[in-house]
Amino acid sequence: MPKTVSDVMSRDPITAYPDTPLTDVIRILAERRISGLPVIDRDGKLVGVISETDLMWRESGVTPPPYIMLLDSVIYLENPARYERELHKALGQTVGEVMTHNPITIAPDKSLQEAARLMHENGVHRLPVLDEAGRVVGILTRGDIVRTMASEQSEGI
Questions:
Q1: Does the predicted model carry a pTM greater than 0.70?
Q2: Domain boundaries of the chain, sorted by first residue
């Protein structure tokens, strides 16, 4: 019988709130050796995900979009809104200012194959697992899937 997300996910994942200071999340990620975690509201509903990628803006800096000057006017060659988002992330002090909004999620009853496809197609490393009410009940990572594959190989499945 094919495995489901519920069979493999980590239950009761470490979470953060939008008002959690970034320094706390950086410490948690480093100490627990994890690369990201779900962000929830006070009702336990998912509002975003904070990951190492979101935190990289603090160290890597932000490059302004290329532009040209023409008759005292600035003409941007890229969308300046992207720069504003990146700058906001680089200067953010709380999880809510830096997190990725509207993350891709999955339900616990979905197949592991469907979860792997979703991760691969969207280039994500983790999927928050939500119940019917939108509350976080677990998290599934690429590592969870690879460990399951290894376990199945060693068992000859």
A1: yes
A2: 5-154
Q: Per-residue pLDDT for 101 more than 60? A: yes
Other beta carbons within 10 angstroms of residue 26's beta carbon come to 14
Fold of 5-154: CBS-domain (3.10.580)
Strand partners, 130: 136
pLDDT digits (tens, 9 = 90+) for 64-81: 556 666 666 666 566 656
52-60 and 22-32 are packed helices; what angle lies between their axes, rounded to 10 degrees? 120
Angle between helical axes of 52-60 and 80-91 (0-180°, round to 10):
90
